[in-house]
Amino acid sequence: MKGTVLKSTGSNYTVRLENAEIAECVLRGKMRLGDLKVTNPVAVGDFVEVETDDVSGQRVICKVEERNNYIIRKSPKHRNARHVLAANLDQAALVCTVVKPRTAPGFIDRFILSAEAYHIPVILIFNKQDVLTKEKDQIKQESLIELYEGLGYPCYKISAKDPATIAEVQKALENKTTLLSGHSGSGKSTLANALLPELGIATREISNFSQKGTHTTSFAEMHELGKDSWLIDSPGIKELGILNVEPSELSHYFVEMRDELEACKFHNCKHISEPGCRIIEMLESGEIAETRYLSYLSMVDDAESTMSY
Ligand code: GDP
Ligand code: ZN
Predict the structure, then answer these.
(1) pLDDT tens for residues 250-266?
(2) Cβ(131) – ligand 1 distance below 6 Å
(3) Which of 259, 292, 262 is nearest to 277 (CA)?
């Protein structure tokens, strides 16, 4: 029978079968692991085929469907190995806050870049509207929303503490599998609790979860929001950074740069100080936001320092 992996703890997998039954499964020993060098052959979000062992009666995952996409990070256990955090995502949602705490635009841009590299659509959820009392903070938020909506990333304004404000977000999550992320303190757990029907269990699980979030040993888990709607709680957002992106590849993941790159005079232009650079021209004319360009520069710096050893 087909199913979706909700949770994995080492060698055990919790699978939601297509008849809605929740089954604890193990992996068949000789299952093909594919080419991916990862520590976990089966990840949260994977679509799998489950059989029941004739003798032991145990549920066994015998096949993993090809993934539409997946997010990897460095394995918590093995330095050079990769760990698949989650698979088959329809979108990634980032909870941001302009104040208490401030989510830096650079953080938003890094999140977007990772998602773009994984081909996962992004939505931004601006939380804590109730504490946004100062006009200058409201202006800051509006300019962020204008920027990101202009780039094609839908933005929502909510106060996770007030469930009456989350209807639009709820709608954006319908019939989708969404990875929920956010800076610690942004209100990710509060929102998850407001979204999840089984509040009691969810509160406990998720608050526990976000505490673990700072450690590399935690794993993602998928929660059912409603029919065909799933929320994946992702620990260690800072680890979500894409792996092995060449500095020269970065600009391809900035939507406003992507289609203009051909117009640079040099094909290997890094868009820093080269003559005839279309990107710098767009920056100067205001077609590219300064914060976005600064994020780009800082990512190039990081990528170069990672590549150099
Ligand atoms: P997480 O670390 O992202 O999971 O954040 P939490 O959900 O634990 O929230 C961090 C703090 O912000 C908690 O004290 C929440 O009660 C508070 N908080 C969350 N959402 C809101 C909101 O909409 N308004 C206000 N004022 N506080 C909020
Ligand atoms: Zn250029």
Answers:
(1) 999 999 999 999 999 99
(2) yes
(3) 262
Instruction: Judge if pTM exceeds 0.85.
Output: yes
**What digits encode the pLDDT tens for the residues 114-136?**
899 889 999 999 999 999 999 99
Kindly report the average pLDDT of the chain as a whole number: 86
Contact 14 CB / ligand 1 (< 6 Å): no
Please identify, by atom number, the ligand 1 atom nearest to the C-alpha of residue 127: 23
